[in-house]
Structures are given as structure tokens and as C-alpha cells.
Amino acid sequence: MGLFDFVKGIGKKNTAPAEQQPAAPAAPAEPSAQEMANKLLGHIKSLGLPITGLSVNYNGKTDLATIKGQVQSQADREKIVLAVGNIDHVAQVDDQMTVATPEPESKFYTVKSGDTLSKISKEFYGDANQYNKIFEANRPLLKDADDIFPGQVLRIPA
């Protein structure tokens, strides 16, 4: 899919445990590139999305996360990109994943202040009651239909 831009500093704080936490005397205010890569790896795994050969690299100077691995569906690929991109400290995601069964890409939408899933649904589908389609397309990233925030990027299925 390529390179995706996100708004740095407004995403959710990554509280997932790091995949391989090295022993450190004191945690700095800003995570190191390796710590951030480990946290992103742990976050992706915590979602339970099927991916093989997963690896994550993070460049702290450019706030770029690079994701490699193979997924079964385009939807899983997009969810992983969004899961990483909607985290604080990530400004770009370089998607180097492959998809076993290629499918058309979804549209992406950046949430604005005052948006609701119903309002977004009305804009894309002409029907506010189709909001559940957007909610389901973004699970497990969203736990609740009201759990969206300005700057967050969502998948909008066809």
C-alpha cells in the first residue's frame, strides 16, 4: 500500500506492553526507537489480527513506523496500518506488508471535531444508520461507536 501520513501527537498513548522489554534503569520522557518499535509490535499483537512474519521498525527522528509481514486480507492490512498510525509519536507508517488474497483498498477518513460515526456514515453512504458498517470495519481498533477522536483515521468500506 505504501506510505501513510498521520497527525503526530494526537493519537492514543501506546500503553501496550513492549514485545521484548529490556531492563532499563529509568524510562526517558520520550521512548527510544527500539522501545517504541517493541511497544508497537506488542500493540499489533494485542489486537489479535492474523499476521505472520510480523516485524516493526521505528525511526524516532522522522517518527516513521515500518511494518512487514503477511496478512490474509486487505481489511487486516488496513487495520494494522491504522492501529499503528493512530498512536502518539507516529507521524508516518510505511506499509511493507503483503496480502495473501488481494482485494480493493478501503477509503480512509480523518475524523474532525464534532464528527460521529452517524455523521460520517451520512457523508459516505447517504444514510446515517449505516454507522455500524464503519464501526465493524474498524474493530478491534474501536471498542465503542463513540470511541473516536479528532485526527483519528478510520477505514470506510465500500
From TrEMBL:
Main location: cytoplasm
Location within or outside the cell: Cytoplasm
All copies of domain LysM, residue ranges: 107-156
Region Disordered: start-end pairs: 13-33
Assigned keywords, A-Z: Cytoplasm
InterPro entries for this protein: Bact_Kbp (IPR052196), BON_dom (IPR007055), LysM (IPR018392), LysM_dom_sf (IPR036779)
Keyword Cytoplasm (UniProt): yes
GO cellular component, one term: cytoplasm
Keyword Secreted: no
Tree of life domain: Bacteria
Protein name: Potassium binding protein Kbp
